[in-house]
Structures are given as C-alpha cells and as structure tokens.
Design brief:
The protein has 557 residues and is of the alpha/beta class. It has three domains: 113 residues, 3-Layer(bba) Sandwich (Glucose Oxidase, domain 1), CATH 3.50.30; 100 residues, PtsI, HPr-binding domain (Enzyme I, Chain A, domain 2, Orthogonal Bundle); 299 residues, TIM Barrel, CATH 3.20.20. It is 46% helix and 14% strand. The chain contains 23 helices and 16 strands. The strands form two sheets. An eight-stranded mixed beta sheet has the order 1-8-7-3-4-5-6-2. An eight-stranded parallel beta barrel has the order 9-10-11-12-13-14-15-16, surrounded by six helices. α8 links the parallel β5 and β6. It is globular. The two termini are 19 Å apart. The structure holds phosphoenolpyruvate and magnesium ion. Magnesium ion binds next to α17. GO terms for molecular function: kinase activity; metal ion binding; phosphoenolpyruvate-protein phosphotransferase activity.
Length: 557
C-alpha cells in the first residue's frame, strides 16, 4: 500500500478502482489555412457547436450544475475570443493554432489575476480542447463510459464533466491540478462526491488500481489493505460526529468567550451560501474581484449594488468587512497598471496603488457609503497593505470624509504588526492577512510553490507578529482573514494571542467552530504559548496538538 496526499475539497470517504480520464487531443501537427475568412468561420462554428452542446447538457443538469454549464457555454461564445483568433490568423497561424493562441492569451490573463479567477483557466482550456476536437472531427474529450463504481483520476476535470456525474457510480475524484475554489471542487461537494485535488502523485496512478480516498484530509491510499480503509472510514465517521455535535449558531469558546466566525467572499453571490454554512458575517470581501478581468472600473452604481447586496444578506448588527481595492502584484488590473516593476509584491500594490489612483478609491468609498445609506447598515471598510501610521491615517481620513463610520486596515506587513500601537491609532479595527504577512515575514514569494515550507502561517515568527498586533491594539477588535483562520488548530492559537474574529472560506466554518467550542480561553492561551515557544512550524503544530482536546485531532490531520 502507498499513500499520496493532496488537498481534500469535498468531504467523504470513497473506495473503488481507478478510471483514468485521458487527456485532450492537443494541437494537430497539420493545420492548413483556407484563408482568414474561411478559417475564422470554421473556428466560430466549432466554438458555437461546443456552446450548443454545453447548453444542451445543461437542460438535463440540476440547478448548480446548470449554472456552471451555462457559464462555460458563455466562455465559448465570448466575442473577445473571436477577435483574438482573428488577430492570430492574420499573424499567419492556421485555424487550430490561432484558436489555441487566443485561449492561451485569455488563460494568461486569468492566471495573472490569481485566486478564484486563475482557477477558471481549467474551464477555458476545456472549451479549447472541445473546440479543437470538433475542428478535427474527433469526439469531444471527456470521461470514458463505465457502469460499475469508479474513482476518476485526471490531470484536471472539466466542470462540464463533473457537473453530470452520478455519485452512485463515481465514488471519488482525484486530480493532479485544480484548487479549492475550482469548479471541480465546488461541484463535487455540491453533488456529494469525495474529492482530492492537487495530488501530484495522481499522474502515476494506473487505470484499474484499487484506491481509497478521504476528501477532507486529502489522503489517497493506493492498493489499500482492508484495515487501512477501515481506519480511514472510522476517522471520517468520528470527524462527522464531532462536527454534528458542535452547537449551531454564534461561535463561543467553552467558557462562553465570543469569537466571531466570518466568511471570506469574492463575489456578492457567495454571501448567501456563506451564511448557510454558518458565517455570522463577512470578514473579508475581496472587492477587487469586481474589478478584475474588465477593461474599465465598475461604476459607482454597479459597486453600490454589489456592496448593498452583501450587506443585506446578513443581520443589521453583523460585521461585514469590505477591503478596498487590492490590486497589483498577484492581482494586476488592466485599467490601473502603473507600469512594470522589478518586484511587484514589494511594489505599488494595495493601498500604494490607491494613493496614486485616488479616482478609484474615492469611487469605491462613495459606493460603500451609498450602500450603507441604502441598507441602513454600518459596513466595516479596510485598506490592504498598510505599512505605516501615515498610510493608515491617509486612508482613515479619506474613508471618514466619504462618510464611512467604521474604518480599519489590514495587517499584512511586519512593520504594521510590530508598531500596531501607533499604526492603529487612527482606525477602529484591524484584520491580519496572514497570507501576505507570512510572505513578508519570511521573505518568500507566496506564488512560489517550492517555498511552501517557509510559507506556512505556523511559522513561530508569524504567530509572534499576530501577537504583537493584538498586544498593541489598545482594545480594538483584531481579526484574521488569511488562510490561517480556517485551520481549526491554528485558530485556537490565534484566539490565544488575542484574535477575536476569524474569517475563512465558508467550507471551513463548521470545523473551526467545533474546535473553538471545545476549548476555553485559558486553554487557547496555553496552546498559543506552546506554539510560540517552538522553534519551527512542525514543532509549533505538534506542541499545539498535544495540548488541544483529543477530539479535534480528526479535524486537523
Ligand atoms: C487575506 C489576505 O489577502 P489576500 O490573500 O487577498 O492577499 C492575506 O494576505 O492574508
Ligand atoms: Mg493580502
């Protein structure tokens, strides 16, 4: 038996033989041109056919799959795609190569945007592969037919394929690529199929291999013996029991101390789903998602509507935090490009960009103030990448002048964490972005996969910076909205050093609430002290786990 690990994105344990989803046809060696007009017509016809077939499949899909299939069909009908194909045809490419190059351009734009948008690249490539297959007269790529239970293993699965899977026969999905917010992940959990993504060893799994997987921990067992499967199942059952026995409603520690448990969202439409999963509010609305992938900034009216929608989703007293535009570095914006930089992560990004493009931030603040007025709510508004007291003051004056009452900043730069007692003077709250804080504390580019070991927020230095922020906060509410907040064990450490608001991907809320409800503040403080005393991330985690209630062990490993 061998064990592989990936990212668990859809809960449940599955056991069956592997069915390998073969890769798409790829570019044909011969790609003769019949003249630009004829080539363009051929590409357009292929794309339309792909879109029509997707629409047809959507007719038989359930509501969640329907939306994904229709969105994918829309990608195939995007007029921008044909404009780009035309320009590649006039550069002398054959039709298939021009189509490929046009998709490459779009994929590069989405990848550069990072996060949720980068994960749409899989959807786009699937449209491309289908269109190439149509142009060559080949069957569209996809899952081979099968009639007994399987675990599908693929480089990545297309949403169009995932959307119509039958959980009776598909006992699990394993992909080498993909991410937690890819459509494969979202659909798998909606349909109820256990799934593990980003499992690099998946590429070496042979067709027909006996497999078992745990869609929470990301564990994949190859040729497992019975006892290993029994253990996997037993742990999953215990985990389900722990989650089921966690009190619903607002989160408290076992001694009654309140901790806000909130959701990170990137789109107004994410808000109702987050609320359903137990979010008391929003700890981070990444508003730049409204700005990405567009040629112009959204208007004040458009923004107002988006912000008001989110505000209205939650109770009047809920904490709903809007982060102003965090563009630059891993999230470039077409209309706010300040030119190439040697080190974009250390360049004019976040608030620094807003200080140059005051038109953008002022429009955003105006929209937020209008949304507050329309909904009679008090939005929390914070700026990203604040490094100095002067920057915090610049932002808070501007936000207050625009009519925002509750103003905050993100703590993502070590200087701000260390000097929070001064930097926070002009604001009402702060939220620690542990993703960037870890990047800057460890001097390790967060996009550099090879540096993953340095980039964990379990780094004692990062925990110390979180503590420093809280120690200097002068009673202000300090939250964490980086990935760290969604780790049930690390959440205890964060509370132990003074954090009282945790914001995470909605799927992580129940596990974090379960961990919080089983520990007192006193215990959290002891766990935090142990993590702070450690000399490396592994030691910190082991020390924390040793002091935590044994029931949560199944939630964290
Ligand atoms: C929450 C954060 O912001 P983002 O991941 O959007 O940079 C962070 O840096 O931790
Ligand atoms: Mg950040």
């Amino acid at each position: 038996m061998r064990t592989l690990s990936g990212l668990g994105v859809s809960a449940g344990v599955g056991q069956a033989h592997a069915l390998i989803v073969s890769p798409a046809p790829g570019l044909p060696a011969s790609d003769p041109s019949q003249g630009t007009e004829a080539d363009l017509a051929r590409v357009e016809a292929a794309l339309n056919k792909v879109a029509d077939r997707l629409d047809e499949r959507s007719l038989h899909a359930d509501p969640s799959a329907l939306a994904v299939l229709q969105a994918t069909a829309m990608m195939a009908r995007d007029p921008g795609l044909l404009t780009s194909v035309k320009s590649h045809l006039s550069d002398g490419h054959g039709p298939a190569h021009a189509l490929w190059a046009a998709f490459d351009d779009f994929c590069a734009q989405l990848s550069a945007a990072g996060g949720y948008l980068a994960e749409r690249v899989t959807d786009l490539r699937n449209v491309r592969d289908r269109a190439i297959a149509v142009m060559q007269g080949l069957p569209e790529p996809g899952i081979p037919s099968f009639d007994s239970p399987v675990i599908l293993v693929a480089e990545d699965l297309a949403p169009a394929d995932t959307a119509t899977l039958n959980p009776e026969l598909v006992r699990g999905l394993i992909t080498a690529a993909g991410g937690p917010t890819s459509h494969t992940a979202i659909l798998a959990s909606q349909i109820g199929i256990p799934a593990v993504v980003r499992c690099s060893g998946a590429r070496d799994i042979d067709d027909g291999t006996a497999l078992a997987l745990d869609g929470v921990t990301g564990t994949v067992l190859i040729e497992p013996d019975e006892s290993a499967v029994a253990e996997l199942t037993e742990r999953a059952n215990r985990r389900a029991e722990v989650l089921a026995s966690t009190p619903q409603g607002d989160a408290t520690l076992s001694d009654g101390e309140r901790v806000l448990v909130l959701a990170n969202i990137g789109n107004p439409s994410d808000a109702p789903a987050a609320k359903k999963k137990g979010a008391e509010g929003v700890g981070l609305f990444r508003t730049e998602f409204l700005f990405l992938d567009r040629q112009d900034a959204p208007t004040v009216a458009e923004q107002t509507e988006a912000y008001a929608t989110v505000l209205k989703t939650f109770d009047e007293s809920a904490k709903v935090v809007f982060r102003t535009l965090d563009a630059g570095a891993d999230k470039p914006l077409a209309f706010a490009d300040l030119g190439p930089e040697e080190n974009p992560a250390l360049g004019r990004r976040g608030l620094r960009l807003s200080q140059v493009r005051t038109d953008l931030i002022d429009a955003q603040l105006e929209a937020l103030a209008k949304a507050a007025e329309q909904t009679n709510r008090d939005p929390y508004v914070m700026a990203p990448m604040v490094a100095t007291k002067a920057e915090a003051k610049w932002f808070s004056s501007r936000a207050r002048a625009a009519g925002i009452k509750t103003v905050g900043i993100m703590v993502e730069v070590p200087s701000t964490a260390l000097r929070s007692f001064q930097v926070l003077e002009s604001v009402d709250f702060a939220s620690i972005g542990t993703n960037d804080l870890t990047q800057y504390a460890m001097a390790a580019d967060r996009l550099q996969g090879e540096l993953a070991e340095l980039l964990t927020p379990w780094q004692p230095a990062v925990i110390q910076l979180v503590k420093a922020t809280c120690d200097g906060a002068g009673g202000r509410l300090i939250g964490v909205c980086g990935e760290a907040a969604g780790d049930p064990l690390l959440a205890l450490v964060l509370v132990g050093v003074g954090v009282r608001s945790l914001s995470m991907a909605a799927g992580k809320i129940t596990a974090v609430k379960a961990a919080l409800s089983r520990h007192s503040l006193e215990q959290c403080r002891k766990i935090a002290d142990a993590a702070l005393a450690a000399s490396d991330p592994q030691e910190a985690r082991t020390a924390a786990l040793k002091l935590a209630d044994p029931s949560i062990e199944v939630l964290v490993s």
